[in-house]
Amino acid sequence: MDLFTPVHLGQLELRNRIVMAPMTRCRASQPGNIPSAINAQYYQQRAGAGLILSEGTQVSDLARGYLWTPGIHSKEQVTGWRKVTRAVHAAGGSIACQLWHCGRISHSSLRALGEAPVGPSTKQSTSTCFALDDGGNPGRVLCQQPRALTTLECRGIIQEFADAARHAKRAGFDGVQIHGANGYLFDQFLHSIVNDRRDEYGGSIGNRSRLLVEAAEVAVEVWGRGLVGVRLSPQGSFNDMGNDPTWKQQHLHLAKALGAAGVAYLDLFNQGWAYGAPSWDESFAREMREAFGGATMLSGGLTSEQGTKLISTGVCDMVVFGRVFISNPDLVERFRLGAPLAEANQATFYGGGAEGYTDYPSKFPPKREVRS
Length: 372
Ligand SMILES: Cc1cc2nc3c(=O)[nH]c(=O)nc-3n(C[C@H](O)[C@H](O)[C@H](O)COP(=O)(O)O)c2cc1C
Fold this sequence. Notes:
Blueprint: E1 7-9, E2 12-14, E3 18-20, H1 37-45, E4 51-58, H2 75-90, E5 95-100, E6 118-119, E7 128-132, E8 138-142, E9 147-148, H3 151-170, E10 176-179, H4 185-190, H5 205-223, E11 228-232, H6 247-260, E12 265-269, H7 271-275, H8 282-292, E13 295-299, H9 304-312, E14 318-321, H10 323-327, H11 331-337
Parallel strand pairs: 3-4, 3-14, 4-5, 5-10, 6-9, 10-11, 11-12, 12-13, 13-14
Antiparallel strand pairs: 1-2, 7-8
Helix pairs in contact: 1-2, 3-5, 5-6, 6-8
């Protein structure tokens, strides 16, 4: 078994085990944060992946933490995403929508009415988001102090994820992935220090997991078992997380609860492998897979050789590749042929147009297959 062995992932039949990582590129059309033809072209170029995970896609205006990221809460956004899903399907690929709420990683300048960000508590992150500075110019700005969500508002967030899951279905996606990683809203709730709530969404490990588990449950109600995934970043430190002494028990508990909720796969991002932060190892990946009882995929600075080994030794079922997919739209064929990989230009990761987005050449385009 290797990266090219087809796999059943829940209800999806995927032609290989190579997953394109969810990657924010800040290129939704304005006004309205709507996907357009250039986004459809970008994803279609990468349709050789067994599964594409879309960039983080906000479920509401308050969920947004960055300028120019696409949403899935307006009619126009659903219509825009339909262009993307059709383009990917026309090239024989599959694509799931990553549903995103940034929580406290946000700024009031992102909203017409200037609402403050929300979070599990009023604890402010020391990290930045991408918004407007005091002069009204786009750039990195310090995240503002959030307002703590009420219990009723937490239930409202679950409703937003149910609505977003329905919208994703109407937009033609092949499933959804809930973004529970990287210091955004669900991760903030999981964290034993950031989350100091005293209601049913705080306190014990079970309570801190509740918001994410309930969001997964409503997404499974909309899509059915086998079409909903969840992304987690155990021991992650992005966005002022980290230093949570309970991270291991927290994530093992969560894996079990998400398995029971009918989630099809866990996507585990090891920030340490990608960026040299503290990291867990393969034995923890195996523990998570066992606790979950379903398929897992791993990411974090992996090469084709490392990915092959992780699959062939049964550590995970699929492997997620990020930055190399930006600069190598034909990544699957390059891996198959052992061809050299092009370097990604970090300066064009976020914002802008075709440069660094749709202009990386495909030297080995995949065979076109048209889905019925
Ligand atoms: C430009 C960029 C944008 C990203 N945006 C997201 C995102 O929207 N959602 C998410 O879960 N992870 C995001 N990530 C993390 C990637 O999905 C991936 O886990 C990370 O890049 C590690 O994989 P790699 O070393 O193969 O690039 C992003 C990474 C990059 C480089």
